[in-house]
Write a structure and sequence with these properties.
This protein is mainly alpha-helical and 179 residues long. The protein has one domain. It is 77% helix and 0% strand. The chain has 5 helices and no strands. It has helices at 7-30, 45-68, 72-99, 110-141, 145-173. Helix 2 (45-68) runs antiparallel to helix 5 (145-173). The longest helix has 32 residues, at 110-141. The chain is globular, with a radius of gyration of 18 Å.
């Protein structure tokens, strides 16, 4: 027998998950002291994260294409896949940043300001959008399609922005990794 999660309870759980994840990422990035030498080679993770973000971006575009062409089953598959790949990204990101030393962007002038603007907007939107992505997923899962459509139209552009800027940020900072 399937347990139906009421919307009010879903919102509470989604808010709690979102706050815990944001706090965890904040602690990992700004509080946790990193080991001087990681216990394993972490050099492949940044590229892996860029690949995951690229996959999410492609899946989001495919999801938009399928829904606009009323191919509901294909839309469900690619959007669920985007959700899964994003989840893998988040878990991998937390693991990587728990052990990896910080990499600083080495550019100067306008490019540095552009990088910082992109990075800050990416980080803020990634944190802010998480509960909305989860709620959109909840509405789809529970077949509350009116609420799903309404929220998805607002969430999609921001989720896509976060995925694409993740890739751009990788390419901008990749020359400065010291592995």
């Amino acid at each position: 027998m399937a347990v139906k999660l009421e919307e009010k309870n879903a919102k509470i759980i989604i808010a709690a998950i979102s706050v815990v994840v944001a706090l965890l990422v904040g602690v990992i990035n700004w509080v946790l002291e990193k080991p001087e030498t990681p216990f394993m080679d972490l050099s492949f993770f940044p590229k892996f994260h860029a690949i995951l973000n690229s996959i999410v971006a492609v899946l989001l575009v495919l999801g938009l294409y399928f829904i606009k062409n009323k191919k509901i089953d294909q839309h469900k598959v690619v959007m669920f896949s985007a959700f899964l790949v994003s989840s893998v990204f988040l878990l991998s990101y937390v693991f990587y940043h728990t052990f990896a030393l910080e990499t600083k962007f080495g550019g100067d002038g306008a490019i540095k300001y552009f990088y910082l603007l992109l990075l800050i907007s990416h980080i803020i939107l990634a944190a802010v959008m998480m509960p909305f992505i989860l709620m959109t997923f909840y509405y789809a899962w529970t077949e509350n399609l009116d609420k799903h459509r309404k929220l998805a139209k607002r969430v999609w552009p921001f989720w896509f922005y976060v995925a694409v800027t993740g890739v751009v940020i990788y390419f901008m900072i990749a020359p400065y990794y010291k592995f």
